[in-house]
Structure formats: structure tokens, C-alpha cells
Amino acid sequence: MKKTVHSSQFTVHSSRARVVMFMAALGLVLASCSAGVAATVDGVEITNDDIIGLTTEFEDASSANAEQYRDLLTNSIVTVSMVTAAEEDFGLEDLSSDTATSAYLAEASEQDIALIGRVASNPGLTADAVDLVTVQLGVRKSVKEALANDTEFLQGVWQNDQNLLIQTCARHVLVATEDEANVAKARFEAGEDISAIATDISLDTQSPGGALPCPSRPDDFVQPFSSVVATAPVGEIAGPVETQFGWHIVLVDSREFPQSLDELSQDPLKWIPPAIIDATWIGWLNEALETADIEVRSQIGTWYAPVDGIIPPPPSP
Fold first, then answer.
1. 3-45 pLDDT, tens per residue?
2. What is the Cα–Cα distance from 231 to 225, expressed in whole angstroms?
């Protein structure tokens, strides 16, 4: 089951699939404690000013909408837990420094850059929020890299999930009937380029020249197409093969696979599917929250671990 804590500024997703998307390392940039401590995470204080300073919608703590404030504080707590665990588990220090942030931005994905841009264009958020989200995404990237390079994790992938490491580049022609597929195959065997055949007759208009995304993994495709891509000799036409979409002939142009655990270890992010890395990251984040020592000021509410959120205080008698 997926649980989601919403606010007008940020969202924390969890399932126990907690993926902090917007907040950042608040514990590294604490404001003056004179504003009052809203919560502590492993002894790191999060103040009212930390929360108020992230949005233009609150003038001070007294003007804050209680539910929105708790949502923002929840995001802050999750992030501090993540940052603390990153340092304890992997020795990842100074991830909020200008040097670390610049290094992250130089390699950030288009998706991350777009996310930072959306935060920057939100009139309800401050420049502090933009800086913080940049730090947080950098921390997430660093933790994923550390997890992917963990020796025990790599051994587990190599022993149990080698089939997921295959990467292929392939082209195909999709037609409505087996007879049409055999005609297309005969054209290829007579010397015609498969891209020209695909351009002429293929029903797959989303793959110009029949070219499938490169590299792809066999599991990206439906069966039995997946098995053909995984096993057909490179450079030889395969098929006809029938799927729910019709009949295909397939040409695998290349197939790569790490030949040893050592080769996998040299560049794990090249070989391991992002979904596996993401699942490992989520598991790590779950544990970081489960083991964190979290205390919320009683007037604000109580941290409730099963939902990774703050429940309001009981009404006054």
C-alpha cells in the first residue's frame, strides 16, 4: 500500500516506499534555536524558523496552518533521518557544501534538474527551499551510488539476477499476419536492410526504422519477444514471433552482459536496472526512518512511525 503525506509545497511518498522528493538536509542549516525547537532527529534540532523559512505563505509560527506546518515538518524529519544515516552508514560527509552541490549539478539527471526548476518556479517557496532541494537530491544520488557499490549487494545481484543485466540493441518489423512476417523476412534475406523494410510496412510507428530503444533489457518487452531479444544470435534475423501486438521479425544488433562479478563491480550503475537500485534505496530509507530517534514537540503532535508522519495532539478537554 502506498501512503502519501501531502502539503501545498512538498510531498513525501512512502509505502513502505518512502522517496523524499522535495525537502532537503534541514539539519545541516539550522536557524537560531531562539525560534523554538519543533523536533529533534538523532539529536539534530529542527526549529520553527527552519520550517517557516521554506515558504512565503507563513509570516511566523503563529500564522502557520497547523496541518500544512506538520506536513512540512514531517518532510524535514524524513530528510534529516536520511542525511544522518548517509553519514553513519557510508561516511558521506559535507554533502551540503558548495563543492558537493556543484559536483552533483554537473552530473544531475534531466529529471532532477526539472524538479529543481519546478521548485524554483513555485511562488510559494523561497530560495532556501531551492537550495535545500538541490542538496537533498545530491544526497540521494550519492547514497544510491554507495548502495550500488556495496559488495554484498553486488554479490546478490550476480548470484540471483544475472538475467536482468543483459542489455540489447535491436530492430524489428511488426505486421498483422504470419504470412506478412515471412515476406518481410524473405526481403531481409534477399539483402534488403531491415530499417527500410520497417519504414515501408511496419505497424510500429513509434520505432522509426524499426529501431527499439537502445540499450534495452529483455524484460522491457512482452513475451515471447523478450526471449527472442535475449537469445537470438546477434546479426541474424529471428522470427516470425507472435505477440499481443501482431507478428514480428527481429534483428538483434548487439547484446552486452558483464562477464564477471569484477566487471559488474567496475560500473554497477551501467548494468543494474534502475528499478533494482531504486528498490534498494527505498529499503535503506525505510531502515533509516525506523532506527532514527525522532521526537516532536508535544504541542505540534506526535511522530507516528507506521505512517511516517505527525499525528495532531489530542483536543483540549
1. 222 233 443 333 333 333 333 333 333 333 335 999 999 999 9
2. 10
For the stretch 129-175, pLDDT in tens is: 888 788 889 989 999 999 999 999 999 999 999 989 999 999 999 99
Vertex 136, ends 16 and 148: CA angle to 5°?
Answer: 65
- Residue 248 and residue 213 in one domain: yes
Q: Domain total for the chain?
A: 2
37 & 180 share domain: no
- How many CB atoms sit inside 10 A of residue 99's CB? 9
Give domain status of residue 190, yes or no. yes
Per the rule left: phi > 0, alpha: psi between -120 and 50, beta: everything else, 235 is: left
Let me know whether 94 and 218 are in one domain: no
Please tell me the pTM assigned to this model: 0.77
Residue 243 β-bridge partners: 246
Q: At what angle do helices 110-121 and 127-148 cross, to 10 degrees?
A: 160
The answer to the question of residue 210 being in a domain is yes
Sign of CA dihedral 71, 87, 110, 30: positive
Instruction: Give the residue carrying C-alpha cell 510507428.
Output: 205
Torsion angle defined by CA atoms of residues 27, 29, 35 and 39, in that order, rounded to the nearest 10 degrees: -10
For the chain, give the mean pLDDT: 86
Kindly state whether residues 90 and 117 are assigned to the same domain.
yes
What the block records as the C-alpha cell of 45 is: 534540532
